Amino acid sequence: MIPVRLLVVLAFKVCLVRSQPSQSSQQVTNPPSPTGEQSPLDDGNLSFPWSRLRLPRYIVPLHYHLLLHPNLTTLSFTGTVQIQIDVQNNTNWVVLHSKGLQISKATILDHNLAHLSDQVLPVLHNPSHEQIGIFSPKVLSSGQKYFLYIEFEAALAEGFYGFYKSTYITSEGETRNLASTHFEPTSARMAFPCFDEPSFKANFSVRIRRSPEYISLSNMPVIKTTQLNRNLLEDQFAPSVTMSTYLVAFIVCDFKSVTATTSSGVKVSIYAAPEKWMQTHYALEVAVKMLDFYEEYFNIRYPLPKQ
């Protein structure tokens, strides 16, 4: 089945979601009390540190460095994420969202990218709230910035949420796979561990590994493609604007495209299955005219270099 929505941020949507959360949502809750540097790293000696549905406010994400490698043969994916975090109260715990992901490694680094611990950090799960808690034996100090690094894997989701498998059928009856995303409202946590609430805005630097017969797309343009080996390429996308996790989007597929540029210099592309490529030109013509019209009507510049 072919996903019909565009896998890019819709015009002006990023601007609209930048509004600040209400005062009540910004209220800082008390973090779990620091336990010093001699805490044992045995999971059996730890209990999940957070009981609320909403995440604690004492850690704020600043920038995600995300690497994903979907396999369209096994219908699974592996990935890593390095999140720069700003600690606002002393704590030993980082609590964030994860759903259906198998976490294989978690570690915390200081601002110089030095490991805070030479031991494997425990990762506790709270499935009912779709949260994980990562314990640091060394206290994370208020006012300092750190890097949280996590390795994970999962199967591509069934259905149309998270990082999911989709298909289309060629005129010859061949079924072809693609991997796509739909994160709104709370499904980014199915693709990578993250602070998956709208008020936790950050920048995102995405890298996607793929076979040469596919392409990859994300919110921002590709700035570099590296050939890792004969059968594997890695696309590096430009850092995104500051946005919520549910606006992150990416796809790996074999689609073809047509492209034009608006009067303000925004690159607009329409993607479709190869056999449907000839049907994309009218959609491109309309898309360019609409984006020009809405920029003039609202007097708001489209915030991204492409759509």
TrEMBL record:
<protein>
    <recommendedName>
        <fullName>Aminopeptidase N-like N-terminal domain-containing protein</fullName>
    </recommendedName>
</protein>
<dbReference type="Pfam" id="PF17900">
    <property type="entry name" value="Peptidase_M1_N"/>
</dbReference>
<dbReference type="InterPro" id="IPR042097">
    <property type="entry name" value="Aminopeptidase_N-like_N_sf"/>
</dbReference>
<dbReference type="InterPro" id="IPR001930">
    <property type="entry name" value="Peptidase_M1"/>
</dbReference>
<feature type="region of interest" description="Disordered">
    <location>
        <begin position="23"/>
        <end position="43"/>
    </location>
</feature>
<feature type="domain" description="Aminopeptidase N-like N-terminal">
    <location>
        <begin position="60"/>
        <end position="247"/>
    </location>
</feature>
<keyword id="KW-0732">Signal</keyword>
<dbReference type="InterPro" id="IPR045357">
    <property type="entry name" value="Aminopeptidase_N-like_N"/>
</dbReference>
<feature type="signal peptide">
    <location>
        <begin position="1"/>
        <end position="19"/>
    </location>
</feature>
<dbReference type="InterPro" id="IPR050344">
    <property type="entry name" value="Peptidase_M1_aminopeptidases"/>
</dbReference>
<dbReference type="InterPro" id="IPR034016">
    <property type="entry name" value="M1_APN-typ"/>
</dbReference>
